[in-house]
DNA sequence: GATTGTTCTTTAAGGCAATAATATACAATC
DNA sequence: GATTGTATATTATTGCCTTAAAGAACAATC
């Protein structure tokens, strides 16, 4: 009924190489994470290592970036960032990525609004969203990895009730309120000064202006990264892993939440405060602070 | 180098329908969980509902059970359990299931012992374990769902360091020691008398003798079920989900642990004690008890 | 009236060949 | 000496087709 008919095309040949633009997006995202500026060199091997790829696909991504005007390249000198990755101009390349995400978002929306039955066959999804079997499988694998759909033993898949339930958000927060402070309170917890500095720099930048220019999705993403980086300090992958999963589900309803810029501002300030305490290794205190940070009901979802 | 060559066959036609025997195994496992006895009827639709399947595959499973001598069927009267599902005789049908699990176990062992590089291509795995692409994909999907392998952005997969690390077990326990007591202490925690009764009955049975007859794997499985049923009481799927994931990884190294029957006995006694406290709704006390239960170093892994 | 038996429809898995994407090795350039 | 350019080998995806598996509907039986 609500299915998007999503350009019935052979999945390749669609506006100048979908894959390349996707790669371009990955590169820009990395550049942003690393705090790179316009003019910085984009060294192939370094990008390849950071993204767990070989140079071949990186190269495609770089070419796409050049086409999009986000990078400039000269023969035998490689590529250089043409714009600050945080600037609004980073959108063009991302536009392609967005298109790729469209079906995902549509499905997420349909599941959240219960427009889709809990149990569905692949055939039905293919028809409904105009996907090839291969495309659908990729998508379902990804969603399964995020934990909100699972294969049934026979034919078909089942969406987790978790997602569509109205209390889902509260439950996710309750879970975080348990694991995040506990992680900080773990015996071996430690956060290198490097990491702290990087996190602070990023939060500071957001605090001092970028916030206004960011989309809800970006703010959300940035918050997740912050918290995931901190929980990583426990040195226990189970904490990190479980936070990641919660976050990937929270992301689904984050889009619905209102943009309360003031609340977000206060939120980021708390992040900065937390970093101060972590820096001086007062972990017990930091754990408490984190607990408070998470318990605050807050609008409808960020952190 | 250590690859098992695993009967290079077309994946179907292998000793009287592999799939049917697998289904038979599912049915027996269900019968055990539900505490069924020899003589109980196996009603197709009921089994189908419980296993999220239709009657067609159930029927195959039942026929296989009959062949294996675990069920008896008469025309128009359906099937009846021939043996107690807890008896050792339940093994024959499971033998087929085990065969199916063999490659999985081999891979798990190779990863645990670091005989496999962290990054591998599918082609390499296919060669090494003598699998078709389809078989391998199924396997990798399952392992990915369990969380100890993940697709790389390019070609290949990466096994989680989590698994092979020597501290993995301690980390898993540390994580459990956080979430399980916290789950019990959640505001809405509740466990119906029904559930408590069922759990008690099961633990009691194990305590009073079955323990001696169970394999390590079965003891482990039973322990997981117990804990998962309890954490479910928090009514927060994130707790349950994360415990499940930890457990599916713990299972990997559980096989290596020694069978300390005395330790296990004490362990089950603690489960029974915990149920008593839960029954009277003294949740704070129960949470503490659970924390102690999990903190005890214990041999090498059960609970 | 519930359950099993049977038939028919739909769904997905498996294998194969063609093609695209990625990795790798080495030469060329700065 | 590090990085880019290029050629080659390896790896995995895609689409197509065949076949197996599962679901659904209805009749038959207890």
Task: Describe this protein's structure.
2 copies of one chain form a homodimer. Chain A is mainly alpha-helical and 303 residues long. Chain A has 3 domains: 18-91, Winged helix-like DNA-binding domain superfamily/Winged helix DNA-binding domain (Arc Repressor Mutant, subunit A, Orthogonal Bundle); 116-163, Arc Repressor Mutant, subunit A (Orthogonal Bundle), CATH 1.10.10; 168-295, Four Helix Bundle (Hemerythrin (Met), subunit A). Chain A is 63% helix and 6% strand. Chain A contains 13 helices and 6 strands. Chain A has helices spanning 18-33, 44-51, 55-67, 91-112, 122-129, 133-146, 161-164, 168-184, 193-213, 216-232, 237-254, 261-279, 283-295; strands at 41-42, 71-74, 78-81, 119-120, 149-151, 157-159. In chain A, the strands form 2 sheets. Chain A has a 3-stranded antiparallel sheet. In chain A, helix 1 crosses helix 3 (55-67) and helix 9 runs antiparallel to helix 10 (216-232). The longest helix of chain A has 22 residues, at 91-112. The first copy, chain A, starts with 17 loop residues before the first helix and ends in an 8-residue tail after the last helix. The model of chain A is unreliable at 1-15 (pLDDT under 50). The A-B interface holds A 26, 51-54, 57, 141, 144-145, 147, 150-154, 158, 160-162, 171-172, 174-175, 178-179, 182-183, 186, 235-239, 241-242, 245-246 and B 26, 51-54, 57, 141, 144-145, 147, 150-154, 158, 160-162, 171-172, 174-175, 178-179, 182-183, 186, 236-239, 241-242, 245-246. Chain B binds a DNA duplex (30 and 30 nucleotides) through residues 10-12, 19, 43-45, 53-57, 59-60, 75-78, 121-124, 132-135, 138, 154-156.
